[in-house]
Amino acid sequence: KCIERRKLAGFERFIRSEDKSEATTEKYLHDVRVFFRFLSKVSKNKSFINSLTSEKISEYKDYLKNNYASSSINSMLAALNQFLKFLGLENLCVQLIKVQKRMFLEEDRELSKEEYNRLLKAAEGTRLYYILDVIAGTGIRISELEYITVEAVKEGKAVVTCKNKTRVIFIPKPVQRRLLEYIKRMGIKSGPVFVTKNGNPLNRSNIWRDMKALCKKANVSESKVFPHNLRHLFARLFYTVEKDIVRLADLLGHTSIDTTRIYTAESGNLHRLALERVQKKLTT
After folding, report:
1. Nearest in space to 188 (alpha carbons), one of 145, 151, 143
2. Model's pTM, two decimal places?
3. Cα dist. 125→115, 121, 132 in Å?
4. Paired residues of 149 in beta bridges
């Protein structure tokens, strides 16, 4: 157990040295712990890290296939591969499973404008209202909220540094106006607008919990309500209005337009309607 703890601590330092985001770091560590739990059950050796084999890795992959969705499996295998590389065991790295990319969202996961507005109404007057407003209005990542400072709001733009990249996030005037009102009401003089009682930046779990608590009041399915979905909503609406995926990629901080295309996906129902329009053209 001590060896595993030391390896995990070393892996965490390694990830952070790679300048991964806090969310990515947490995800990698969580996934490696899942791998540890699996090994502890199937390995006779107390120090299972020292007895890793390709057979055990294959067993773990089979375990994931039987217990997780394809998208989750690949993200967990990606974390495992990073861990194996950290250990110097590149030869044990495993191939990801092949998944055909979907160019549409599952309808039980897509947050609509109407549902977003119901969430806003339900959160009115609370700190969460302004957090929802900022994320959906700018496309900012939840981990980047700390860059929304009093100074940035007054200037109308925030300079975000993440993964050795710097980009400017503009704050639309309506969002800026509401934030300035909130800042004045809360008596915030400087620094990050959204902090805990101890003055630390809010993390993903704080906001996730508050959003889930809002679902019943807003009559919105919990499967649709999580911080990153607001970023997707921003991306879909921006692309609908502007049809400029290059500028959208820049706004979202993506290095690859392929990633941005995922964010602009619409529901399967809209794809069906498009096919029906094509069918109508064929038959009339």
Report:
1. 151
2. 0.65
3. 18, 9, 12
4. 192
